[in-house]
Design a protein that fits this description.
The protein has nine helices and 13 strands. The protein is an alpha+beta fold and 300 residues long. The protein has one domain. Strands 7-8-9-10-6-5-4-13-12 form a nine-stranded mixed sheet, sandwiched between helices. Strands 1-11-3-2 form a four-stranded mixed sheet. A hairpin with a 2-residue loop joins strand 8 and strand 9. Helix 3 packs across helix 9. The two termini are 28 Å apart.
Length: 300
C-alpha cells in the first residue's frame, strides 16, 4: 500500500524526489543504481559503463542498451523552477553552432532537443523538480531513434533524485557517488594502471577498458553506513554494477557529457558501446521494476 503523499516507482509520477518515494529500499537496490544524487533504473539486457575524469573522479555513468546509450545528470535549481526551459534554448543554440541539425519537440515534461549527426542522433530530455533539474541524454544510431526515445522517457520516469540539503548554486552539477561495487572496480583499474604495463594489465588497447571485478561487497546506505542485506536479482542493478566497464579517463572513454549544456559525443564511442552490448551482454532475467520491462510490456 502506498503511503499518503508518497509514490511507488512506476506510478507514472516520476522523475521522483527521494522524499516522495515509498518503494522499499531493498527493492530499489536491485532495480536502481545508487549514484548519490541520482538513483538510475537499470535496463534489462544492458550494461553499465563508468567514465572517470582526468582527475580520477566519476564523471558519468551510462546505461548501454541494445538500442543506444542513456546518461543522466542532476543539477541544482532555484526554488522557482523553470530551469529546463532556459537550458533548452541555450542547448539548441549551442548544438546548432557546433554544426548539428537540431530540432525541438514537445514531450511529456516539456521540450526535448534532438541533435542529428551522420548515422545517429542525441536526444536531450529534461524535467524540473524540487530545487533540482534532471537531464537525460539518449544517444544512438538513426534506425533506433524512436525506440531509444521511448526507452529514455521510461528511464527518466523511473529515476529518483536525491538533492540533499547542501547549498549549491543553480546549474551546478550535483555530485556523483559510485556505489561500493563500482568504486572497487575503479580503484582496481587505477591500481592496475599504476603498477602494470598495458599488456600485463588486461586493458583493451582499443577502448582503454579494464575487465570488471567480481561482486564482493553489499551496497551501503546513503550516509555511508551499512544497509540491510539485499538478495541479488539476476539482471538487476547490483549484478549490472558488478559487471560494469570502467573507463580510465576522458580520452579513452570517447563520449563525454559535459555538466554544462555544451555536449560532444563521438560516433565512434556509440559504435563501440553498441558492439559491446550486441556481443557481450549476457542473457539476464528481468529486474524488478526496471524501465525496460515496462517498456517492453507497453510495446506488446
Amino acid at each position: 500500500m502506498t503511503t499518503t503523499g508518497k509514490h511507488a516507482i512506476g506510478d507514472n509520477a516520476g522523475p521522483y524526489d527521494i522524499a516522495e518515494v515509498s518503494t522499499p529500499p531493498g527493492e530499489l537496490a536491485n532495480s536502481h543504481l545508487d549514484l548519490g544524487s541520482i538513483l538510475m533504473p537499470v535496463v534489462e539486457g544492458g550494461q553499465v559503463t563508468v567514465e572517470m575524469s582526468a582527475t580520477h573522479e566519476p564523471e558519468a555513468v551510462y546505461l548501454v542498451t541494445p538500442v543506444g546509450r542513456i546518461g543522466l545528470h542532476a543539477f541544482a535549481a532555484p526554488r522557482s523552477g523553470g530551469l529546463w526551459r532556459e537550458v533548452v534554448r541555450e542547448l539548441a543554440e549551442s548544438l546548432r553552432a557546433e554544426g548539428a541539425q537540431t530540432a525541438v519537440e514537445d514531450g511529456h515534461w516539456g521540450r526535448e532537443v534532438i541533435a542529428r549527426v551522420p548515422g545517429g542522433s542525441h536526444r536531450f530530455i529534461g524535467a524540473d523538480g524540487s530545487r533540482w533539474m534532471i537531464r537525460c541524454v539518449a544517444s544512438g544510431p538513426e534506425e533506433s531513434e524512436v525506440q531509444l526515445a521511448q526507452l529514455a522517457r521510461a528511464v527518466l520516469a523511473e529515476t529518483v533524485v536525491r538533492r540533499g540539503d547542501e547549498p549549491f548554486p543553480p546549474r551546478e552539477l550535483l555530485p556523483i557517488v559510485l556505489p561500493p561495487v563500482l568504486a572497487e572496480q575503479v580503484a582496481a583499474a587505477q591500481q592496475q594502471m599504476a603498477e602494470q604495463a598495458v599488456t600485463e594489465s588486461g586493458m583493451d588497447p582499443e577502448t582503454g577498458a579494464f575487465p570488471s571485478q567480481p561482486l564482493s561487497a553489499a551496497p551501503t546506505g546513503a550516509g555511508g553506513g551499512e544497509a540491510e542485506p539485499v538478495d541479488v536479482v539476476p539482471g538487476g542493478a547490483v549484478e549490472q554494477s558488478a559487471s560494469a566497464t570502467v573507463y580510465s579517463d576522458q580520452e579513452t572513454a570517447g563520449a563525454v557529457v559535459e555538466p554544462e549544456p555544451e555536449v560532444a559525443v563521438t560516433d565512434e564511442a556509440l559504435e563501440a558501446d553498441q558492439e559491446a552490448v550486441e556481443s557481450d551482454a549476457p542473457e539476464a532475467a528481468p529486474s524488478r521494476g526496471s524501465a525496460m520491462s515496462r517498456f517492453r510490456r507497453r510495446r506488446r
